[in-house]
Write a structure and sequence with these properties.
The complex is a heterodimer of chains A (312) and B (288).
Chain A lengths: L23 E12 L2 E12 L3 E5 L6 H8 L7 E6 L9 H4 L2 E4 L11 H9 L8 H7 L15 H13 L5 E5 L7 H16 L3 E5 L3 H7 L2 E6 L2 E7 L12 E6 L2 E6 L3 H11 L6 E6 L3 H9 L2 H4 L2 E2 L4
Parallel strand pairs in A: 3-7, 3-8, 5-6, 6-7, 11-13
Antiparallel strand pairs in A: 1-2, 1-4, 8-9, 10-11, 10-12
Chain B lengths: L2 H12 L9 H22 L1 H21 L11 H31 L2 H6 L5 H29 L9 H25 L6 H18 L11 H9 L1 H13 L15 H22 L8
Helix pairs in contact in B: 2-6, 3-4, 3-6, 4-6, 4-7, 4-8, 4-10, 6-7, 7-10, 7-11, 10-11
Classes of the chains: A alpha/beta (312), B mainly alpha (288).
């Protein structure tokens, strides 16, 4: 399948401040990062507009976390241009950090502070923090507010991470696989919380393994693998129109067949006619899900193997 | 990165909600004090540090006082009185250097520092919090040791203001130096798990050669010279000048308490430690 190249019918990354009325909170151009000889990020470009939620998708080791940690100022880049809230993260000062919220990929410390103490402590670092108890309630830990963080479950600790990420009322929130360890109920509650932040105008950069989560929360996404941006665009256009062409599958004596066509009905009618009205065995028509499209992009063979109708 | 766009943006951002409402210096100190309260509370919630750092010198004082109660240490000097200055000095070393070095190494590896690095907390506030924690815990520790020495073992404490003044400056200078050197040493362990294994041998050896457990004047001359390079020997000597009768002064290796020398050596270490911290401390290990 085609569509592996950057951005389907999307405008190239605009220069920062170029578009009138639209302001990029994140602008990444030709980002490169290598560890010694090993390149972790080879060529990644994207922008995030103010108020937008952007999802960075990709398999483990694709370079997602490296990219996000460069934007957060934790890592230095090898090459390319990066601007976060108008500042080069390699030189971001305290005023710059005050405008960010960071939820790191790993839940780290298991401190002896209670949930409330920890949040009150961090709230003090910011000029206009959210209300501590409101944030605790928002992440569903009201009844654990007086528990020590070290005594919480993994999923509950993750919620503390999220609470610490939003306590400072950030303009830009980084969420690196935020819902790892959440049960389905907690995940839905988390989505509601994020929608609330979106309604307040918070810009969000999200990485996740859950494509439904990306579909629920993000307006645009980039798919990254082996350090390169494979696709970039609105989620419902990701991979380009060809990636969404329905697949007709059936079984013949010669083996399984899979054909991509924009007219699956016509194809099925023709099959019936060719077989003299006999039902094709194991017939199905599949409209590729976001997951199928994603897997196709990052190189899982499944949907790649389908023939193109017009190629026959 | 094109500078015109970045600076243009930064100006725009300056008017944003993140502008601190108070001068940076005031904010740094205020956050530092808030950190100190938070750190002290965390310290006493950790059972292992309370025992091995906070109560350890007291436990040793008790053991020595009981074990050597029959031995003669000099006219009017019981085992408890003899070991009191040594244990006060050991407490300063443990509360400062050992506690800081292992604590910060642990915070480095468990992600505490990485998380703080992503917030607008100034590094100096973090240091104020740590040093504040050491000051508070070391003071409580010293008070506890003095109380037990006085009331459990009947040690006669000095009654004159001059002795307590000496105690005060030796203690504060010792705590500050010890804490700062602990912060500087926290970069050595490669992981939090190895921190105690790396740091405790250092402090233990230092205690043995500096006259904490063994009488300093009975050590071989070359070892005395080695120990004199480090601040603990001077700290212990300063403490002895406060709590032992003046008759003991002539028993010192140099025949004198050498308080000015103690102040100079410790002060040099304090300054060197501060410089080392400023140069070497990083929230996280950047990979370049």
């Amino acid at each position: 399948m085609e569509g592996g190249s950057n951005g389907w019918g999307l405008p190239p990354v605009p220069a920062p401040g170029h578009a009138e009325g639209m302001e990029s909170v994140v602008s990444v151009r030709n980002l490169r990062k290598s560890y010694g000889e090993h390149p972790a990020v080879e060529d990644v470009s994207f922008t995030i507009e103010r108020g937008e939620t952007f999802a960075l998708l990709g398999p483990n080791g694709a370079g997602k976390s490296t990219t996000i940690e460069i934007l957060e100022g934790y890592r230095d880049r090898t090459g390319g241009e990066v601007s976060v809230l108008g500042v080069d993260p390699a030189h971001g000062g305290l005023d710059w950090k005050a405008r960010l919220g960071i939820v790191l990929q790993s839940t780290g410390e298991t401190g002896s502070a209670t949930v409330r103490e920890q949040l009150a402590q961090f709230a003090g670092y910011y000029a206009h923090p959210r209300d501590v108890d409101e944030v605790i309630a928002a992440v569903g830990l009201a009844d654990k507010a007086r528990s020590r963080i070290s005594r919480l479950s993994g999923g509950q600790r993750r919620r503390v991470d999220v609470a610490l990420g939003i306590i400072g009322r950030p303009e830009l929130l980084f969420l690196d696989e935020p819902t790892t360890g959440f049960d389905p109920q907690a995940r839905r509650a988390f989505w509601d919380l994020i929608r609330q932040l979106q309604a307040e105008g918070t810009s969000i950069l999200l990485t996740t393994h859950y494509l439904d989560e990306a579909a629920q929360l993000a307006t645009r996404a980039g798919v990254i693998a082996n350090g390169r941006m494979l696709a970039l665009g609105p989620l419902d256009e990701l991979g380009g129109p060809t990636a969404r062409v329905p697949i007709v599958r059936w079984r013949t004596d010669a083996g399984d067949r899979a054909v991509r066509t924009d007219e699956p009905g016509a194809l099925v009618a023709r099959l019936l006619a060719e077989n003299g009205g006999a039902e094709p065995s194991e017939l199905e028509i599949v409209r590729p899900s976001l997951e199928d499209i994603y897997l196709g992009l990052v190189g899982e063979p499944e949907t790649d193997s389908a023939e193109r109708e017009d190629a026959r | 990165m094109s500078d015109d766009t970045t600076t243009g943006r930064r100006d725009g951002a300056g008017a944003g909600s993140a502008t601190p409402a108070q001068p940076a210096g005031v904010r740094t100190v205020r956050l530092g004090l808030a950190r100190a309260r938070y750190e002290v509370r965390s310290y006493f919630r950790q059972g292992d540090t309370v025992f091995f750092t906070f109560l350890f010198p007291l436990v040793l004082l008790t053991i020595f006082s009981v074990a050597f109660s029959e031995q003669p240490f000099g006219p009017g000097v019981s085992a408890a009185r003899f070991y009191l200055p040594a244990m006060l000095a050991a407490g300063v070393l443990l509360s400062g250097l050992q506690n800081m070095a292992t604590d910060i190494a642990q915070e480095k590896s468990d992600g505490t520092l990485k998380r703080l690095a992503g917030t607008p907390l100034p590094v100096v506030s973090y240091f104020i919090g740590k040093i504040g924690q050491v000051l508070v815990t070391a003071t409580l520790q010293a008070a506890l040791i003095l109380l037990v020495a006085r009331f459990a073992f009947g040690v006669e404490l000095p009654a004159d203001a001059a002795s307590w003044l000496t105690f005060a400056w030796v203690f504060v200078l010792g705590v500050a130096t010890s804490a700062v050197l602990g912060i500087a040493l926290s970069g050595i362990p490669r992981s939090g798990r190895s921190a105690t294994a790396v740091i405790i041998p250092i402090t233990l050896v230092l205690q043995f050669i500096s006259g904490i457990y063994l009488q300093f004047s009975q050590l071989p001359g070359w070892l005395q010279n080695v120990a004199s390079v480090f601040p603990l020997k001077w700290l212990a000597q300063g403490m002895r000048s406060v709590f032992l009768p003046s008759a003991f002064e002539s028993a010192e290796a140099s025949g004198s308490w050498q308080l000015p020398e103690a102040a100079i050596v410790t002060g040099v270490w304090l300054v060197a430690g501060l410089v080392l911290c400023r140069i070497t401390f990083r929230w996280i290990r950047k990979d370049g």
